[in-house]
User: Fold this.
Amino acid sequence: MYSEACRRLHREHNEYVLLLAEATECERALRTAALPALLDLQRRQGEATATSWKNILLEVVQRSDFNTDKFREIQSKVDSTVQNLKPHEEYKEFIEKYKSPPSTPVSFTFDESLVEDTSGKLQPNQLTVDNLTVEWLKEKLTELEGTLQDNREKQAQLVPEANGVCKNNNTSLTNGVNGIDRHSPPPIPATASEPVKLLELRMAERKCAKQAEMIRSALAELGCEEAPSGCPDLSAETVGVDSLDGSSPDHQVGTLEAERSLVEQEWFHGVLPREEVVRLLRADGDYLVRETTRNHARQLVLSVCWGQHKHFIVQTTPEGHYRFEGAAFPSVAELIAWQRTSGVPVTARSGALLRRAVPRETWELNNDDVQLLDKIGRGNFGDVYKARLKTTGQEVAVKTCRVALPEEQKRTFLQEGRILKQYQHPNIVRLIGIAVQKQPIMIVMELVSGGSLLTFLRQRAGVLGARALLAMCRDAAAGMRYLESKNCIHRDLAARNCLVGDDHAVKISDFGMSREEEEYIVSGGMKQIPIKWTAPEALNYGKYTSLCDVWSYGVLMWEIFSKGETPYAGMTNSRAREKIDSGYRMPAPEGCGEDVYALMLRCWEYEPDKRPHFHQLYTAIDNIYNR
Ligand code: ADP
Assistant:
């Protein structure tokens, strides 16, 4: 069972390595073969057209000999002009003129962090050949060889029919334009799709050939018949690998009874993310139990600090009992109690002993203690409720996370809780806790009476004077000054993400995109960027700092003074972006003083270094307010 999981891991690894090779090969083939061949095809088509025209005109000349002097004179002029038509000359400069500049090769690199935990058993971008993968690799090789054979047959069928367009294909594709015989007759291809089909086949051939070559040399190097043993040293010891595939319902975390007794254990931390768990386990022997989902199956994991952090999956026997390597027990609580008192290591290999149960922290709330009342909003991950904490009777706001969301997204959801946990400031929404004992997981926060600032501005700001609006800006600046001092970049500051409390106090909320870093570079594609609130350097280079928040803060000030209007109204996101790049800035909202507008403009300086910091903004606003 264990080796089945290892085998799978290794196969995934190998598949990843092969895919990288495939991507690299495709990209190279596109650059070095497909594009030049396409250009050459265009040239040949041009030449062929010119030739056809020449033939037509020659025919016209031949058939129109009317024997008059005048006509003969005209005819001879046409004749000599037509004779002088040299299709080959016409398109001589074509390639030079139209070829695109050499493009920079894209490199596809292996994400090395993926194999950090495997103690050298899996090497970055290297196929793993061992007893777990050797059969798979051989099968893969056979499959690739079959595909290659098939591909070559298809090409052989196409080449004679391709009317010579790609006849000299081998050389033309591998050598690019230089390999093409320029003086070969340039007929128009029978159908436009044939050369394209051939190109596709050629590219597929290249990537398969590359993958086959990699597998062949890996097998040859290691002597595949006696492959080395390949049990990876995973950071999570998959003691109960059965539950990994989730195929057997017997093996999933089970009965209501068992769940109830588990939830009652102080050391059960529900779906607390691994990063948090690691933070809680400090000394050797510290342990806790948590739950995780893998391939749609729920698993219980015992996390222990023993030299390093180790994570053991609780195994379930066919009878529904729980065990690691030793005795099995009807409940996880009994299993853990036995592991603790017997002094037997969780696994012989790890030697890990259980010494101190790490209890839930005060901010880890019990889901059953949260009584949801009314729905008050809708967030990215799920609905937001007004709720009551049964333990204290306190009214709170609760963000829920939809049960069906993938694990990765649930982790992102909880990130907001992790960041907020450390902050305490009157202008930052306060975290009360997270409830992760069971689904749906929740973030519990102070209930801010007025709800979203944007809705408030649109519905109720009519009665507010400029001074009250300025006070709101000052509150937001105070909250942001605090965040800046903590090296926290919010990345999504906007009226929709602020809340309004009693006395119109503004609180910064929605830390879903926040990062605790001085500078944060977004490398992958960003999905939903609030373009109209985001600073140019973040849009253009993915570079985020607190000074990007300052840009967004300028837009927030504008929203406050325009009482909830949409910025850059009537412009699409890309239009607004273009206009900003060319120097455009929104005009002052009605009733906004010049000094306040001047501050907005400073927030919208194109160069981040020219923008004020939040502590400067706060002081400037406070001065205007007290004037
Ligand atoms: P998400 O971060 O998932 O987008 P939001 O933070 O934007 O969710 O919350 C959605 C809505 O729920 C807000 O616009 C607001 O109306 C309401 N809301 C969120 N948090 C609170 C809170 N602490 N107090 C009162 N209302 C809240």
